[in-house]
Amino acid sequence: MRKKAEAAQDAATKHVKGSGASKAYQLLRDRIVSLEMHPGDDIDEQALVDELGISRTPLREAMIRLAAEGLISLLPNRGARVSSMDIPQLQEHLEAFELTQRATTRLAALRRTPADLVRIEALVVAFEQAHEKEDVNGMIDGNWELHLAIGNACGNRVLAKIYANLLTENLRIARLAMSYETFPTQEARQAHLNRILEEHREILEAIRVRDAERADQLAASHTNLARKRVTEYISLSALGSMAVGTLANVPGLTGGI
């Protein structure tokens, strides 16, 4: 009986730790992706422990996971901070992202299963619905889920894992591509979103008919949309055209591409 009681207590403790780590992970991820926490910001561990009502252990578990996804940097003997978004780092990220996006989308066209295709199509529709509702967070999350599903359909678990990490690291760039405050006009934002919507449908069709070359081309074009948006944003920010509170005022996003 004693052993059973101890086992039950251990299981309960593990559940609490897991719940605390998951809660901390989601809260930090949301704040980083929404840019509520700026690139380069120090992370106040004690404040988060107090806010969430958890110990430092699950918080550190969450931060290790976020560090693996490229959203925070763990500093030896100095705590942690939100990963920077300096220009050389953005260039390297977009270069790696394009290569992995092209590879996973090409392979998905060749290897996808009927179930993969159903999942991808459902997520294309979900993104369109979030766009119709003008739900920025829904579009960001929906875009992540859509491309994650394409990555999972590539039939290579190693490549899919690398792509998944880059997709998560890319979430802050997705914020630039879809939020209202980072465009000079509503017309410019809508034109950008229209192209994203069109390419989602075109990628879906290339995967449906197993056209690997077309899927590869579209994946490259899709990455170039992100690169173009970052370049335009930085150019406008340098001229002081962006509103206060956007990435123009965030440490760690400086220079030009």
Automatic annotation (TrEMBL):
InterPro entries: GntR_C (IPR011711), TF_FadR/GntR_C (IPR008920), Tscrpt_reg_HTH_GntR (IPR000524), WH-like_DNA-bd_sf (IPR036388), WH_DNA-bd_sf (IPR036390). Coiled coil: none annotated. Residues 18-85 form the HTH gntR-type domain. The keyword Nucleotidyltransferase does not apply. Keywords: DNA-binding, Transcription, Transcription regulation. PROSITE patterns: HTH_GNTR (PS50949). The keyword 4Fe-4S does not apply. This is HTH gntR-type domain-containing protein. It comes from Pandoraea norimbergensis.
